[in-house]
Amino acid sequence: MDWHQQYIGKVKHAVFHTQKTGRKRVVVSTEENVIASLDLRHGEIFWRHVLGINDVVDGIDIALDVITLSSDGSTLRAWNLPDGQMVWESFLRGSKHSKPLLLVPTNLKVDKDSLILVSSKGCLHAVSSIDGEILWTRDFAAESVEVQQVIQLDESDQIYVVGYAGSSQFHAYQINAMNGELLNHETAAFSGGFVGDVALVSSDTLVTLDTTRSILVTVSFKNRKIAFQETHLSNLGEDSSGMVEILPSSLTGMFTVKINNYKLFIRLTSEDKLEVVHKVDHETVVSDALVFSEGKEAFAVVEHGGSKVDITVKPGQDWNNNLVQESIEMDHQRGLVHKVFINNYLRTDRSHGFRALIVMEDHSLLLVQQGKIVWNREDALASIIDVTTSELPVEKEGVSVAKVEHSLFEWLKLKGTLMLASPEDVAAIQAIRLKSSEKSKMTRDHNGFRKLLIVLTKARKIFALHSGDGRVVWSLLLHKSEACDSPTELNLYQWQTPHHHAMDENPSVLVVGRCGVSSKAPAILSFVDTYTGKELNSFDLVHSAVQVMPLPFTDSTEQRLHLLVDDDRRIHLYPKTSEAISIFQQEFSNIYWYSVEADNGIIKGHAVKSKCAGEVLDDFCFETRVLWSIIFPMESEKIIAAVSRKQNEVVHTQAKVTSEQDVMYKYISKNLLFVATVAPKASGHIGSADPDEAWLVVYLIDTITGRILHRMTHHGAQGPVHAVLSENWVVYHYFNLRAHRYEMSVTEIYDQSRAENKDVLKLVLGKHNLTAPVSSYSRPEITTKSQTYFFTHSVKAVAVTSTAKGITSKQLLIGTIGDQVLALDKRFLDPRRSINPTQAEKEEGIIPLADSLPIIPQSYVTHSLKVEGLRGILTVPAKLESTTLVFAYGVDLFYTRLAPSRTYDSLTEDFSYALLLLTIVALVAAIFVTWVLSEKKELREKWR
Amino acid sequence: MASIIRSKSVLSVFFINLFLSLVSSAVAVSSGSGDGFSISGRVKLPGMSLKAFGSPGGKASNVKVVLNGGEHVTFLRPDGYFSFQNMSAGTHLIEVAAIGYFFSPVRVDVSARHPGKVQAALTETRRGLNELVLEQLREEQYYEIREPFSIMSLVKSPMGLMMGFMLVVVFLMPKLMENMDPEEMRRAQEEMRSQGVPSLANLIPGAGRS
Fold first, then answer.
1. Which residue from A193, A203, A526, A789 puts its CA 20 to 30 A from B128's CA?
2. ipTM exceeding 0.85?
3. Rounded distance, CA B128 to CA B106, Å?
4. Can you name the residues that pair with A189 across neighbouring β-strands?
5. What is the pLDDT confidence band of residue A436, given thresholds at 50, 70 and 90?
6. A-contacting residues of B 2-21, CB under 8 Å?
């Protein structure tokens, strides 16, 4: 029924641990701030830690334990290799930002203690690997030197530290690593200046670029002398115009330069001359050098060739020689190779074999050995941006084999429960169970439990997950057009959901992205078929898409009309068909929307004005006008949250009957917007502001008229605010600085203008206003009720359950700081709760008021599982009214089915059909027995 | 930038071992350089104290300590200690995320006026803490225990109740009828017959008399 999947994200660094006998593993750090130890045989996770959001991993290595440097080089941690227990943690201080570097020298060992050298924040620290104690620190920032590289000299306890002061002064320090003693300091100025990364070619030579990016500068600092040597890129026979970059690598005697879209391998000859060894396109990836058996070095080069990927392992310095050459078939949905890490092993014939860990464009991780992919991990699923659902195909007529099979299986199951099954039957049951056809069939089911979860990831890859068992049904790496270099994907929308044509049309989703990071960048649209996973179409638009609005209209092929708002506040209609435009023309005056400009503190309401005026006549472009605007005072209020109702939410009834036989009318409007603002001073983290200078103001705004329906100030409160708006209520979570606890508030809105309608006499006489047209322009009188409770935990996400008809009572789904999802009945957040509810109120289900919301461990829907790095919770109604489908995502994925009011419309899974059958049989038998008995008795009576 | 202006950092290490000594000792060690304050404390999990500290497979590896709702996240050392560095003076909130245990968030006040003075209080129970030793308030059971099969649960179920009632009607009612006096029975039957078919005449008073 529920499933849980663990991921790690796109791998940044990897360190192998294969030397010792026993479990072979690879320790990785990822872009999701995860540190994990993976089984090298199967790719499973041995252990994993998700660091904080700001705790970006800068480096990882293995000394005795796994050493990680994170938080811009300020936190150094050691983790026990077998079980991942943190051994120690050190904080490195420094005054200035500098490139964080982690170096674990191989031969600097005192007893068992090996030294860890960390260069961060302008300082060089030497840390003991046993307890994390800082042995010595040297402040280079004091000499205004920015450290570029820390170099270990072979077979000695001396290290070189090289860096720049300003952009042209080169410094080289020779330091005794054991005590931090400065042995030698050389400095020299280079008039051309330095820019970019440095590539270390040997232990006393490095190569960098000058500020014009056209000259390669070879810096050698051997024998206490610094010598510069300039080599023009044009002298190497290369066109140096364009973007030149030195790629960080650790090959001996060689380095890589990236020029525009190709890469050059340049070698330093024995006469200190540079020569180009090889030229490859930019898609080729090179691994770091690997030292194996007595100072031999090797590195891997991965090249693309059609659908294949060629992996060559070359010995260091010798380009023309290959140790291993393998070619593997690669799924083109994985895109390009982004990173490669190599490791060696001893074959049975004592020769060296190599395995490669490859990180692909789609964030997947592959282990390649002997020309085969040993295992792969789909780690794009750790970075989900947006989720939507799609129905599965309808079971076609004539394909009733499944049904026959199904009933056969039911019959077998029944036999099994009645313990009448023969061993063959039991085996058959097991086989069918393993296939678990009911759960993971690729067709729609009667209850609507089986669905496709369409997820969009940061890797620009779309996955369709089957809700039954979470397997990937298809995946698609979005096509990259030539026009756009760095596209980013944003959102998924349901483009076409066929109902009338469900048999012959496939549903599709719209993927909206943009070319670049700024909101003014032109938008990209892609349409993806959700059954086949094929990209139907894709457009590079000329305008941007700041906001995308699905309209409640569909055309004859059931494509939903969408409006894209660009940064000039013009709207563009999609699909671009004449039919769409005619539908849109009809509804022209009924289209309103709002925009929230959080930076300026303005909320605006918009409507369509006219067709775009421009040189190019575009029928699908419209000018807009601002209807209203709400301007928040910048000095006292800063918008931190704006939440609206889910567009597809269904509300069963507007009336709420209270215990006093009274009717309250919920104010149900689709155009409700919840906005929370805080004092600018208190917009930072907790503890940064005094309670007196912090306040939280919440608004409920009608987005058609711009009317503020409700406004409330919480003094001494601050964000972050997590809110959910549903039916006629809003629940929000914030921090109360006075009590120093988190609070959750509920506000319910009731329509007063309908309140008089409960008079029967008025109804009979026709003096009611029930037949009055409901309009979004009307200004009904409303009343609000609010209540506030304490809530223990910090919250990462809040959602509310949604069911097909909206009859079932609601539960709030709260993603807590511990990465669990708590289901909390809405009844606990009812503003009508009082300390002593009357008998009638108790019957209605009103819970006595308490100051805090209860946390019942059994109501964690994730049970004892964690959805690490929880970011969002999606709820989708099933066809069965009692049930809602819940999908929580973060670094992990979790899916379950929930029944907030228990499964009142279906039998539970553990319902005993055998018992029912037995009862029926027993009853029938009893009828016969009593019938016979009564016959006999009647006969006796008659004889008497 | 050789000027490190602020050196008011105080490393407050709180130390307690309830099992060995009843005397709690608060040791304050001031560290030399750097800026900001540090908060150090210890999380105590049941089972951790019984095992040898640092034994592999301890639950401490799955515990996170979260400052200010996610601003900083740290992990426990094998002995349960944790620390946050570079804190500003003011009020902070520390939460412990451990599967299977319920921890109260802790309010920690770092005083700027009295360097090194750190006050801590559980926000759930409003209990002040002398030392920053966090203990779980309760263990959490995430699974409900399935009730074992029993005859009583069968009888108590609606179906069982219905069957019980039916049995009563079938077997006990005839017994009741038998025990009735035949005379009384006949009278009752006659009475029923006379009332038997309710006519409109019976309903309208007066009309029945005429």
1. A789
2. no
3. 9
4. A169
5. low
6. 2, 4
